[in-house]
C-alpha cells in the first residue's frame, strides 16, 4: 500500500490468493534518545504517524467492507526513541471522526539494576498491542 509516507516497520498480513497485503500498524524508530520536545519526535508523533494510521484504517475499512463494525477496528503504532517507546492507537468511533490515544511513554532502564522493573512495562505494552490487533 502507498500512503505517501514511509515507516521503519509495517505490520501486515498476507491472505492466500490476494496480492495486496492487509496493513494494520506501523512503527518509527530513532537511534538516539530524544526528549518529547525534539523535532523528529514531534513530527512523527503528531503529524506523520496519525496520517499513516488513518490511511491504514481507511484501507482496512474498504477491504473488509465494514459498516456497523467500524468502531471495533483499530490500527496501532509504536514510536521508538532510544530506550523509550510510546504506543499510539487510532480508532474510529463514528464514520467521520478518528480518535488517537497515546499511551504512557515507557522507558527501559540502561543499567542492570533498573532493567527488571522497566522491561516488564514494555512487555505489557507489547501484550496490549497484540490484544488490540486481535
Name a few traits of the molecule:
2 helices, 134 residues, alpha+beta, 36% helix
Number of helices: 2
How would you state the average pLDDT, rounded?
Answer: 76
Low-confidence spans: pLDDT under 50, at least 5 residues? none
**Oligomer category:** single chain
Distance between the termini: 21 Å
Radius of gyration, in Å, reads 16 Å
Q: In total, how many beta strands?
A: 6
Structural class: alpha+beta
Proportion of residues in helical segments: 25-40%
Strand content: 25-35%
Form type: globular
Element pattern in H and E = EEHEEEEH
Largest sheet: 6 strands, mixed
Task: Give the structure's gist in a few sentences.
The protein is an alpha+beta fold. The chain contains two helices and six strands, in the order ββαββββα. Strand 3 and strand 4 (84-91) form a beta hairpin.
Describe this entry's structure for a reader.
The protein has 134 residues and is an alpha+beta fold. It is built from two helices and six strands, in the order E-E-H-E-E-E-E-H. Strand 4 and strand 5 (99-102) form a beta hairpin. The relative contact order is 0.15.
